[in-house]
Amino acid sequence: MKKKFLLLLLAASAFSYASKAQDTVKTTADAPLVLYGSVDTYYKDDLSGHANIPTSFASDNNSISIGMIDLGLKKTVGNASFVGELSFGPRNDQSVPTSGYHIQNLYVSYNLTSKLSATAGYMSTFIGYEVISPTGNFNYSTSYLFTNGPFQNAGFKLTYAFSDKVSLMAGIFNDEWNAYTSVHDVSTFGAQLTITPVKNWTAYLNVATGPTSGTEFDLTTAYQITTAFKLGLNAATFSPSHYGGGFSGVALYPQLAVSKVVTLGLREEYFKAKTVDAGSNYVLAGPLPGGSVLGSTLTANIKTGPLTFIPEVRLDKVNKQEYSEFTNSSLAPTTSASQFVLAAVYAF
Amino acid sequence: MLAVKSAVAQKDLLSIDEHNKYIYYQVVQQPGLTADTFQNRTAYFLKINYPKNKVNKSEIPESITGTGKLLMLTGISAAKHIDGEVTYTFNIEYKDQKYRYWLTDFVFTPYYVDRYGNSVPQPGIDVTLENGAAKLEKGQLNNYSIQISNYSKQFGDRLKQYMLMVSSAPIKNDKKKVITTKDW
Fold first, then answer.
1. Quick check: helix, strand or coil at residue A306?
2. If residue B141 lies in a helix (H) or strand (E), which one and from where to where?
3. Are A265 and A255 within 8 A, CB to CB?
4. pLDDT (tens digit per residue) in B85-121
5. What pTM does this model have?
6. % of residues, chain B, pLDDT over 90
7. Distance CA A140, CA A229 (A)
8. Which of A22, A134, A160, B164 has a CA that sits 20 to 30 A from residue A8's CA?
């Protein structure tokens, strides 16, 4: 019944807007078969001597480790296009938790009109500021908001552009994140309102909600204020469907290009773990339920052609000892953790 | 060696104008045709060949101006990588017996691959071709200059074909000739 209701809602929202239309999918109409991807490797040193900060990827301490090789192919012919993106390596295994899964994106898309497009398949999530691919992030380590949110959603979505400043995506997705198939049904509703208030400033208002997946509201925005200075912001709150828990937080991303090859950026994140009810089995990466953490990450991107070196220092501090799982070099409980990362990312 | 010479020659198709901007500029003599004919054929040429180009209202009566863009590609022929796009302005002017055209204001905007694998423009990053030496690597700049030159030449060659057409109406395909085997 709920599924029928969602389908009906989606159809109604699509057809009510079908009189105007514009293409929001910036694929290339005349492009040949396009190959893209990346390779990344890193070294991390947590100053405690062991891994502490529980965000995604870059998990190995005092080790020269690999991220993943990411290989994508895409093609557009007329109004039809496809994207297929495969990845292999520890970063893939941590981003797609099911063993043997190696697909980051696999979908087909069709422009029904010049303003309305339909897309179906397995796609990177529309929620959040950061992404799985190391080429899509400025910082190499990831935020708590990213780590605890969805990575991918499988589903069907329609995107309609009212103008070049406003567009709306609405879709139905599988009941659980980061999986090719649904566990029970296709019961997560997702929507994204995209607004471009002024040139070079775009804001995305996102929601994903379902009886199994829970509900996340998310604001992601970035403003290239000058050619050298960019400011990004991500704010989100998530509540599971049952027994409390979840999180809320905000992250600010100022970035400044200091030369042709060097850009400096800060990520300042506040992340709070919501309290859980008795019987909850909800687990998140971060402070214990009821606690909060302030994460400060200073990163440089040094570009030489397609290769980017990413040195990064990070300091995370939990508000109270009772909510912290950090330990110092003597393995004694502490409220703070710090790490240094040097990564190299090659994009093609 | 030949390929290198060819690449240099293609890059040299771009000149510098009085405003210190790169320009692809040609004057074409076409005896027997009037300015009106040139204008009609240009409008048809743009409609058929460059439907996504924007045509602006020109201040000069016997001219057509507008903007367009082309993709900058790198990589092997079977599978390309999209580096970005170059926007340009075009101007086409007519007099009886001759017309001239030029492409200029070349501005490069890099693309990045978004979370869905789409290649999309990086907002707020625009590099004029004149400023390319300061903002782009030498190999990149050479590659883009060659692609812009080739594109400009192709634009001019296609325009010339349409200017020479007897009728600007689309050429209809004749029906296939039916063979009858009864009579022979």
1. coil
2. helix B138-164
3. yes
4. 999 999 999 999 999 999 999 999 999 999 999 989 9
5. 0.82
6. 49
7. 19
8. A22
Say if CB A55 and CB A267 are below 8 A apart.
no
> Which residues of chain B neighbour A124 with C-beta distances below 8 Å?
115-116
Q: Is A145 exposed, middle or buried (0-12, 13-18, 19+ CB in 10 A)?
A: buried
Residue B9, token pair as written in the block: 């020659």
Q: Which two tokens stand for residue A322?
A: 């009772």
CA distance B71 to B85: 4
- Measure the CA–CA gap between B108 and B120, rounded to whole angstroms: 13
Q: Specify the DSSP class assigned to residue A176.
A: S
d(CA A99, CA A93): 7
Residue A236 β-bridge partners: A218, A249
Sort strands A166-173 and A188-198 into parallel, antiparallel or unpaired. Answer: antiparallel
8 A C-beta contact, residue A307 and residue A325: no
ipTM: 0.82
Distances (CA, A) of B166 to B21, B36, B41, B63, B156: 36, 14, 10, 21, 18
Residue owning tokens 């409390």? A244
Strand-pairing partners, residue A235, are: A219, A250
Q: Which of A299, A337, A252, A15 is nearest to A141 (CA)?
A: A299
* Dihedral-angle region of residue B141 (phi above 0 means left; psi in -120 to 50 means alpha; beta otherwise): alpha
CA torsion sign for A241, A247, A250, A251 is negative
Distance from C-alpha of A147 to C-alpha of A204, rounded to nearest angstrom: 19
Q: How far apart are CA A116 and CA A160, in angstroms?
A: 4
CA distance A182 to B26: 61
> Which residue type sits at A123?
M
Search chain B and give the residue with CA nearest A24: B120
Are residues A25 and B71, on separate chains, in Cβ contact within 8 Å? no
**Cβ A34–B78 below 8 Å, yes or no?**
no
Extract the runs of DSSP E, i.e. beta strands, from A31-115. 34-46, 63-77, 80-88, 103-111
Quickly list DSSP for B36-58.
Answer: HHHHHHHHHHHHHH-TTSEEEPP
- Report yes or no: A140 and A58 within 8 Å, Cβ to Cβ: yes
Contact A115, A161 (CB under 8 A): yes
The model's pLDDT over B5-26, given as tens digits with 9 standing for 90+, comes to 444 455 678 899 999 999 999 9
Which of B53, B69, B80, B113 best probes binding to A when mutated, by most A CB atoms within 10 angstroms? B113
Tokens of A192: 């994204």
* CA–CA gap between residue A109 and residue A118 (Å, rounded): 6
Q: Which residues pair with A297 in a beta bridge?
A: A267, A314
Residues of B with CB under 8 A from a CB of A: 52, 71, 73, 75, 78-82, 112-126, 134-135, 137
